[in-house]
Amino acid sequence: MRDDVSQMKWWGWGDENIEFDASDKPFLMPFISRELGLSEEDEEVVKPVSIEEVKLPEQVRNQGFLDYARGALRDDQVKTSDKERLVHSYGKSFRDLWRVRRGIVSSCPDCVIYPESEDDVCALMKGAREHDAVLVPFGGGSNIAGCLENRETRSRMVISLDMKRMDRVLEVDKESCVARIEAGSRGPVMEEQLEAQGFTLGHFPDSFEFSTVGGWVATRSAGMQSDKYGKIEDMVLSVRMVTPSGLLVTRTVPKSSNGIDVNHICIGSEGILGVITEVSLQVHRLPEKKEFYGYLFPDFESGVKAMRQCVDEDCMPIVARLNDPGKTALSFAFKSVQPFFKNLMGKAVKKYLSLVKGFDMEKVCLMIMAVEGDRRTFNRVRSRVNSIYRKHGAFKLGISPGRAFQKSKYDFPYLRDFAMDRGVVCDVSETSTVWSNLLPLYYSTIESIQEAIVATGVAPFAGCHISHCYHTGTSLYFTFACMENGTGDIGQYLAIKKAAQDSFIRGGGTLSHHHAVGFEHAPWLEKDISSTGVRAVRAIKDGLDPGGVMNPGKILPDDRLAVDWGLEGGEVESLEGTES
Asked: Which stretches of the chain drop beneath a pLDDT of 50?
C-alpha cells in the first residue's frame, strides 16, 4: 500500500509549507514599486481565502463506477474528500490561481483515483466506458494552459487520475542509453533513480520539481537544457498509452518508416486520447564537468546574433538564456544580498561598462549560459562560445551569476504567489518563430502587451527571454505584470493575455512553444494549424475515444471559449477572426 504522494498547495505554487522569501532580496520590492507603481508604504498583503471558505460544486456520484473502482482497486486508491477534489480542480495558470485564491471553484473532479500500475489504468478505462464516466489524467498539477480543468458538459462523473504513484524507472539499457520510465515519475524522483545508474534524461523544465514524465510527453514540454538534449518529443522512442479503444504500444527503436508516427499522436495529446502509462526515453551518461556562466551583451540584437552564430557553428551551450532589458532588470532585482566586496566589485564593473565600454545600462542584456561534457569537449565549447560572445560585444561576468541562476532556477514560479498577494497581475506567454522573424515578432509583441496593459489604466511591465534555439529559429518567452486596476474581475488579465496570443498568430509565431493548448489557448488553434488540421485532430479524437471518456473540452475549440474569455459581441468576432 502506498500513500506517500505529496501535492502542491491548492492556492499557489510548491509545497504547502514553502512560501517565497523576499527577505534576502533587497532590490525586489523597490523594482516592483518602480515598475508598477506599488507603494512600499501602502503595500497590502491579501492572502487566499481559507480552505473552509471554498465552496465546491455538488459532487456527481456514479455509484456504478464507484462500486466498480473499489472492487478493482484498494479503498486507499479511491478518494472523494473535498481536499482531494480541490487540489485536483485546476492547474497553476494565473487564471487558475486568480479563481481559487478567491474561492471561485466552478468545476472540479468528483473523485480522485491513484492508479499504481498499467493494469489499474486499464481497469479504470474499462469501468469509465461501461459506466459513462470521464477520466482526466493528472501528473504534478503544474500545467498553465487549462489542461486539467473539468470541462465536462453532460453531467457525467469526472475522475481525476493522479499518476504519481506510478513513479519508477523500470529499466535502463546502459548499452543503448534507453530508460523505461513510468508516467507518474516526478522530475527529481526520476533523476535520482537515473543518476544512481550513471545517467540523466537532461530534461529540466521550470516545473521540474513537481511535473511528471507523462505530463512532459502529453504537453510537448521543453527543458532548460534543450539546446543540447532537445524537447521531450526528441527523446521519446516508444510509448504505452491506455485509450478507450485499447492499449496503444509502439516499439523501442531509434527511428522507423512505418507510416504516420503514432508516437507523435501520443506526444502532445494532453490527455484527450488516453492515459500515458510508460515511456521509453533516450538518456545520457552523466557529464564529467558542468559549469554556468554569466555575460552582459550591450543590447538584445547583439545577443541574438551571438546565439545565431553559435547555432551556425554547431557549438551551442547546453543552456543559452538571453534576457532582454526588461527581464535583465528583473533578474538583477531578484538577486540576493551580496557581501560588501562583491557589491563594490559590481558597482565598479557597472562603471567600467558604462564609461569605458560605452554600454547603455538601460539596454544591457544578461545571458546565462552553461557548458558540460568531458574536459576536452567542455574546454573546446566554452572557449569557442566565449570567443563568439566577445565578438558580438559581450562582457563576461564569470561564474557567480551562473551559479546564482543554477541555485534559484526553480524559484520564479514562487514569485508569482508573492506578487498576487500584493495585487499584481502577472503571467507568461511563449511562442517560437524562425530566425528571420525573431526580432520583428519580439518587438511587435512587447508593444502589444504594453499597449494592452496601458489600456487597462495601469503602468506596464513586459520582458522576454530566449531559451531554446534550433537550426531554423528559436523560442520567445514573454513575462508581463501590472497592478490590478480595481475592476475586481479577471477581464483585465484576459485582455492582456489575448493581446500576447493575438500578436503571436498575427506575427507568424505559434500559439505555444511548450506550454500546450489546453482550453486557454484553444481559440488560436485553427489559425495555427488550419481548419483542416483541426479536423484531423478531431478525427483522431473521435476514432480513439468515440464515447468522449478522455479529458473533454481540451485542445479542440468549442463554442464556450468566447464565454470563457469574457468576450462579448464584436469582441467575440474579433477573437474568432484573428488574422494570420
From this structure: 340-341, 344, 567-580
- The dihedrals phi and psi of 440, each to the nearest 5 degrees, come to -60, -40
Q: Which amino acid is at 29?
A: M
Q: What is the CA radius of gyration of the chain?
A: 24
Task: Provide the domain count of the chain.
Answer: 4
What's the CA gap between 145 and 136, in Å, rounded? 14
Domain assignment present for residue 308? The answer is yes
Contacts of 193 (CB under 8 A, 6+ apart): 168, 169, 185
Q: Tell me how far apart the terminal alpha carbons of the chain are, to the nearest angstrom.
A: 53
Q: What are phi and psi of 242, to 5 degrees?
A: -85, 120
**pLDDT tens digit sequence for 249-294:** 999 999 999 999 999 999 999 999 999 999 999 999 999 999 999 9
C-alpha cell at 154: 453532460
CA–CA distances in Å: residue 488 to residues 2, 130, 252, 485, 534: 43, 44, 52, 8, 35
Residue in the block written with cell 518602480: 34
The active-site residue out of 68, 229, 442, 477 is: 477
Query: What interhelical angle do 300-312 and 375-391 show, nearest 10?
Result: 140
Clarify whether residues 335 and 386 are in a common domain: yes
> Would residue 293 show up in a list of annotated catalytic residues for this protein?
no
The cell for 52 is 473552509
DSSP state of 212: B
Per-residue pLDDT at 574: 45
Whether 378 maps to a domain, the answer reads yes
Got the DSSP string for 253-301?
-S---SSS-SHHHHTT-TTSS-EEEEEEEE-EEPPSEEEEEEEEESSHH
- Nearest CA to 178 among 202, 199, 205? 199
Could you tell me if 430 and 564 lie in one domain? yes
Q: What is the pLDDT of residue 41?
A: 63
For the record, the C-alpha cell of 60 comes out as: 456527481
- Domain end marker among 409, 436, 464: 409
Read off the C-alpha cell for 573.
Answer: 468576432
Which of 162, 184, 216 is the last residue before a domain boundary? 162
Q: Is 296 left (phi over 0), alpha (psi -120 to 50) or beta?
A: beta
The alpha carbon torsion through 87, 93, 94, 98 (nearest 10 deg) reads -20
Tens digit of pLDDT for each residue in 171-230?
999 999 999 999 999 999 999 999 999 999 999 999 999 999 999 999 999 999 999 999
| pLDDT on residue 195 | 98
β-pairing, 111-113 with 158-162?
A: parallel
Three-class SS state of 427:
strand
Residue with grid cell 549560459, as numbered in its chain: 369
Q: Which three cell numbers stand for residue 397?
A: 561576468
Residue 22: predicted pLDDT: 86
- Sheet order of strands, 169-173 included: 169-173, 178-182, 275-282, 236-243, 246-249
DSSP 224: T
Helices in 152-241 by DSSP H: which ranges?
Answer: 187-195, 213-219, 226-229
In this predicted structure, what is the pLDDT of residue 236?
A: 98
Torsion angle defined by CA atoms of residues 221, 224, 230 and 235, in that order, rounded to the nearest 10 degrees: -60
**The pLDDT of residue 564:** 64
What's the pLDDT at 16? 86
